[in-house]
Task: structure prediction
Amino acid sequence: AGLIHASDFVILQADDFGMEVFEHLRQRFPEPGEVPCILVTPQPSADLLMRAMRMGVRSVLRWPLDPREFNAELARLD
Result:
């Protein structure tokens, strides 16, 4: 809290996209999709993908990142 300023996009690293992350994002960005968000996680389960997409996360990438895949996501944000 207090460290995030106006942003073009947000990259989250999370092992699990739990309710605490969801609530923090909801408080910071009240409108889902207001700021494009990429979630990076080592275990992208189907449940996690559904919850993240409902929150407005634009894409979910597997950690460790594939540089080509990550660059393609950044290009889509542009």
